[in-house]
Write a structure and sequence with these properties.
homodimer, 186 residues, mainly alpha, 0% strand, DNA-binding
DNA sequence: GACGTAAGTCAACAAGCGATTACATCTGCG
DNA sequence: CGCAGATGTAATCGCTTGTTGACTTACGTC
């Protein structure tokens, strides 16, 4: 059994990364302060600069790599519509780290905004468009992306997820139909 | 001919309001500084406090009253789908004041966020839901709102409006069909 | 033309921010 | 053991922010 070392750079960077994800999720890039991240990690403020160079460097490692849509695309587009609808309407994530929520809460940031826009294009939209294929791919991918972005905004950022199950069930069904028509040419 | 007065409180407040709309549109609530607003208005910084009490007071008068969907709902829902699609896909507003863009860029703000969420519910979503009517009204209104919010995000905040007219035309048509199905029960 | 008040100006404050510095302490290795 | 480098700490720097209060200037009235 390896005794947990009192000084362990690897464990410390990991604690900082997790604290950073939580804090960026809750506040967005600008409003999240390095002091709060350090406090949540139970770590001295200066260690953020030491291990990640800057607040920006921390953001690049804590958030940017997770913007991929790979978890969805890797299983192909069959059943894609219902899988997306289930995940975004039925699944209630209580404040858990979601990189797309970070994106929505960091749009106004002059520093983080451009990074995020670039990352989501390359990691999410381009692959989705390619997976759809055909001459209408761009239009279809845009509608899928904007519909999902709006739902994340509504449910997870503005916290307006419908209370009653019946409404959610109607929503899930309508959304499934809509996405299904968009993902697979009829 | 009334000579423009050198000292005119009414004109000054108006200049501040316009400058505030532009600045909040470009930067969101937190990132917009009172100094930049004052500069854009060609006005002394302290006048913002004098006329509006605080940055928050200025925001409440410059942005909140414009979140209504009245411009759309007043003509009823017939042709509503194509009117919305035209406006959000075809119309290219170059950085002009759009209160919904301000909302998207101010989500992370602890001060402005709650105000905006509350205002959009009462001024936009509730009226839309009532206009649609029927047992499915909430689900339908939610899908309309999230689809439009996503488009505003994509086109006007992230600046990802498709370049070529053909893609936009496809997009406009698909969106019209989709919204049409949502706004009027089939 | 003096004068009171509305309109506008100026310098400064306290608070919070990211980043840096100099110092203390622990750990692994010879 | 003894020491060099890795790891952690505390204090502080320079900067920007919203807000404030005292000051100055212009306008309308008599």
């Amino acid at each position: 059994m390896s005794q947990p070392r009192k000084r362990d750079a690897e464990a410390t960077t990991e604690r900082i990364l997790v604290a950073a994800q939580q804090t960026f999720h809750d506040k967005g890039y600008d409003a999240a302060t390095t002091r709060e991240i350090a406090d949540r990690a139970g770590v001295n403020l200066a260690l953020i600069t030491r291990y990640f160079g800057s607040k920006r460097g921390l953001f690049e490692r804590a958030v940017l790599p997770h913007l991929s849509l790979g978890w969805f695309l890797k299983d192909g587009l069959q059943d894609g519509a219902s899988r997306l609808a289930d995940f975004y309407v039925d699944t209630a994530l209580k404040g858990q780290f979601d990189p797309f929520v970070v994106l929505l809460r960091s749009l106004s940031s002059a520093e983080a905004g451009p990074m995020l826009v670039d990352a989501i294009q390359k990691q999410a939209l381009d692959p989705l468009q390619e997976a759809i294929g055909g001459p209408e791919a761009e239009a279809r991918a845009t509608l899928v992306a904007t519909q999902l972005a709006g739902l994340i905004l509504w449910f997870r950022v503005m916290d307006k997820r419908p209370r009653d199950v019946q409404t959610r069930e109607r929503l899930r069904k309508m959304l499934t139909d809509h996405l299904s028509g968009l993902l697979t040419p009829e």
